[in-house]
């Protein structure tokens, strides 16, 4: 590779929630930059004012912050190539569009939206291209005088690229190898709009050049735009300056049929956006991975594995390990199916792998929401350690452990009733007495005493354990029952046994 400094960019248009495919694009940019001591830049591509959505830009930065993928240069923290918001760079682009006209690679087009609409109505599959441009109103069909007249009269115009009728252009994609395009198949895209704003095609090329971008990772859906960009690079700056591209494979629906969309998430009940997104025009909120209870470590790890692996069986990678291991050569060419069960598996693995102290503060709000106030962090950590094996998502800690903090709301006495008898009743009455006299209170001794008592009553401890669990927990779940008794303490244990015995009598 050339000795150019590695500079990569994520270039989102702030139009709504951040799809997990977008975060994966960020991640691959980030990993590549960090691996090569390069810079990761975020450039906001907001030149389409009709698609402006309030709050969408801030939301993107919040998502990156949550994932720990912090840009080196961005509209938020600035940098040597500021501004990083294309709407603030408006004056830069026009001269490049004019340069293209001068060189004969672009032209003024004066057709009004109504005239174009008319064409779309009358000509089937109308495209503004080398076949139709001569029948439209532009500087290729009008005389130079007519063009000057229109410009002098301030008739609104757009500037379009003049796609060569028949030319083959190629690029060497880092994932796909050599990709070839026939320029005749692409229409004459608008480069500069009537409001003086560039379109994506012009702005992306100009800014990648001015910001000295060395490598560009973007979604596969941008591949059809590549011939336009290649030509713009050729005409304006020279192909040797063009960044190396990598078009990332799509993230597919779970059944593999097409790109995963927000609607698939709604239909199948899983998040597609990184964080909750509230559409300001409708007020509707779409759930994000964060709010559903994913740890950022797990989310990032899961995304890395959607379309990449390091060639071994290893699946759990920290961000630091990903930086060390990442390689473009190992990105798959084909789309990667999204599997929500697997996503939860990643989260479960990270919940086990990290010390609970690391994420206890993220669990607390779920307890608060359930009306459980946590006032002892050490106790919370102890409980989390006991139940984490049973938790896939952060809110699971509440369902799996609320009985550690409050008396169970309901006791499933039906699960005890069937096999209840006087001998068992007596056992528990005596157990209460023994527990009241207990001087030490730890799981090991509680279990030992319980089993000795069972033997004395000629009962099998196994038969007593389920009722005991239901008394303490309310249902047939939870960790080791003596760990529960040890954690909730003497008074609560005794109180819960008494309470259930009353219900049973
Ligand atoms: N603004 C484009 C988007 O919203 C960026 C595509 C690119 O990275 O070139 O995805």
What is the structural class?
Answer: mainly alpha
Beta-strand share of residues: 5-15%
**Can you summarize the main beta sheet?**
3 strands, antiparallel
Head-to-tail CA distance between termini: 81 Å
Give the total of beta strands: 13
Helix proportion of residues, in percent?
40-55%
List low-pLDDT spans. none
Question: Can you offer a commentary on this structure?
Answer:
The protein is mainly α and 505 residues long. It has 3 domains: 89-207, Glutamyl-tRNA Synthetase, Domain 3 (Glutamyl-tRNA Synthetase, domain 3), CATH 3.90.800; 262-356, Glutamyl-tRNA Synthetase, domain 2 (Orthogonal Bundle); 358-504, Arc Repressor Mutant, subunit A (Orthogonal Bundle). Helix content is 44%, strand content 10%. The protein has a 3-stranded antiparallel sheet with strand order 3-4-7. Helix 1 (20-35) packs across helix 11 and helix 18 packs across helix 20. The N and C termini lie far apart (81 Å). The model has no long low-confidence stretch (mean pLDDT 96). Glutamic acid is lined by residues 11-13, 45, 200, 204, 218, 222. Glutamic acid binds next to helix 6.
Task: Label this structure with key terms.
Glutamyl-tRNA Synthetase, domain 3, 3 domains, two-stranded parallel ribbon, Arc Repressor Mutant, subunit A, Glutamyl-tRNA Synthetase, domain 2, mainly alpha, 505 residues, binds glutamic acid, three-stranded antiparallel sheet, 13 strands, 44% helix
């Amino acid at each position: 590779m050339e000795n150019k400094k590695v500079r990569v960019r994520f270039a989102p248009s702030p139009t709504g929630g951040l799809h997990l495919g977008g975060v994966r694009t960020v991640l691959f940019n980030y990993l590549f930059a960090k691996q090569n001591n390069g810079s990761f830049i975020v450039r906001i591509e907001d030149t389409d004012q009709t698609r402006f959505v309030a709050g969408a830009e801030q939301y993107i930065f919040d998502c990156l912050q949550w994932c720990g993928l912090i840009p080196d240069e961005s509209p938020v923290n600035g940098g040597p190539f500021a501004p990083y918001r294309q709407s603030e760079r408006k004056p830069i682009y026009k001269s490049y569009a004019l340069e293209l006209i001068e060189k004969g690679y672009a032209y003024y087009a004066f057709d009004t939206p109504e005239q174009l609409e008319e064409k779309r109505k009358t000509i089937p599959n109308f495209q503004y291209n080398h076949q139709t441009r001569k029948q439209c109103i532009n500087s290729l069909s009008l005389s130079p005088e007519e063009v000057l007249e229109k410009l002098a009269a301030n008739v609104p115009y757009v500037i379009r690229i003049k796609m060569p009728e028949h030319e083959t252009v190629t690029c060497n994609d880092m994932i796909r190898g050599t990709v070839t395009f026939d320029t005749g198949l692409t229409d004459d895209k608008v480069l500069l709009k009537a409001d003086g704003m560039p379109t994506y095609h012009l702005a992306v090329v100009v800014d990648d050049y001015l910001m000295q971008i060395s490598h560009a990772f973007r979604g596969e859906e941008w591949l059809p735009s590549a011939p336009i960009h290649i030509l713009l690079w050729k005409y304006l700056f020279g192909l040797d300056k063009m960044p190396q591209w990598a078009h990332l494979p799509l993230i597919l629906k779970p059944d593999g049929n097409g790109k995963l969309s927000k609607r698939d998430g709604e239909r199948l009940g899983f998040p597609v956006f990184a964080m909750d997104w509230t559409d300001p025009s409708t007020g509707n909120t779409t759930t994000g991975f964060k709010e559903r209870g994913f740890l950022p470590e797990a989310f990032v790890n899961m995304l890395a594995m959607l379309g990449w692996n390091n060639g071994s069986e290893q699946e759990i990678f920290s961000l630091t390990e990903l930086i060390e291991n990442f390689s473009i050569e190992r990105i798959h060419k084909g789309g990667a199916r999204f599997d929500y069960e697997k996503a939860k598996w990643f989260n479960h693995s990270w919940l086990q792998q990290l010390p609970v102290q690391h994420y206890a503060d993220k669990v607390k709000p779920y307890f608060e929401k359930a009306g459980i106030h946590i006032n002892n962090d050490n106790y919370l950590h102890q409980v989390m350690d006991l139940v984490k094996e049973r938790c896939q998502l952060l809110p699971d800690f509440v369902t799996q452990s609320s009985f550690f903090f409050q008396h169970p709301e309901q006791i499933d006495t039906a699960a005890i009733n069937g096999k209840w008898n006087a001998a068992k009743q007596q056992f528990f009455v005596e157990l209460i007495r023994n527990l009241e006299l207990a001087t030490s209170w730890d799981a090991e001794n509680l279990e030992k005493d319980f089993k000795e008592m069972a033997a004395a009553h000629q009962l099998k401890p196994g038969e007593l354990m389920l009722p005991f669990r239901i008394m303490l927990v309310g249902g047939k779940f939870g960790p080791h029952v003596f760990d529960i008794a040890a954690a909730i303490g003497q008074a609560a244990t005794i109180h819960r046994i008494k309470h259930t015995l009353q219900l049973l009598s």
